[in-house]
Fold this protein.
Amino acid sequence: MRIGVDLGGTKIEAIALGGGGDVLARQRVATPPSYDRTLDAIARLVLRIEEEVGERGTVGVGVPGVVVPSTGLVKNANSTWLIGQPLERDLARMLERPIRTMNDANCFALSEAADGAGAGASVVFGVILGTGVGGGIVIDGKCLVGANLITGEWGHNPLPWMTTDEFPGPPCYCGKIGCIESFLSGPGFERDHELRSGRNERSRDIVTAASLGDEGAAESIALYHNRLSRALASVINLLDPNVIVLGGGMSNLPGLSRAVMALLPNYVFSDSVATPVVPNAHGDSSGVRGAAWLWPA
């Protein structure tokens, strides 16, 4: 039995998968904003899962950051109480077994590559379009981590082929300007819509307005489609993946995959585009499933 844990900023979810990827049990709790209480919450979830199923399992944890192999400490976590902490070592001690950790975007990509929308593909690029913009790369069933532990961080490259009215782009929290994340994240989409229309609206309200014939809302969505196609074209030009799987809240924009596929030929350096861009298969469960898949059968 594989147990996966998704350590999010607001909730911690644990899942148990059988050998065929079937869900045996699921538990979740609110994320406590302290390191010691987070450790305790994860350990309790794992033990509750095992008690429910009646079996001991391997444990993989998806984290909002990375554990640096040379130090064993967490870095780049938006749950700041994790930064600089030996999460993997402490959990291994508490649960009395080895623990595997991986960035949560990589877990999403791994889940979709294992038995989701990217199943059977050799190279999968998993995209997170949410509060931030991230991603993960899976090659032949294994996450590509990289020398700096930042593989898949396409959101902190500049938006390609900026127009004159886009340049130099909005500031990003990373300290740069014009990052893909600052355009394609949910907050970036809403901010850009407000600048163009003068209306401060949530993403879902913009979608609703567009469906009712609002031209300004429709223009904001069309611009989002175009920017996403430019950004993904640069990924295809570099990585040339077999499939791109979209995840995160903004991936729920109606018709997003089809719209991007239609625009990609304008930007990809090829006379045709063979890489499909597809919705994810497992939704919000992809991260926790991917954490479970960090261990082989």
The two ends are 8 Å apart (CA to CA).
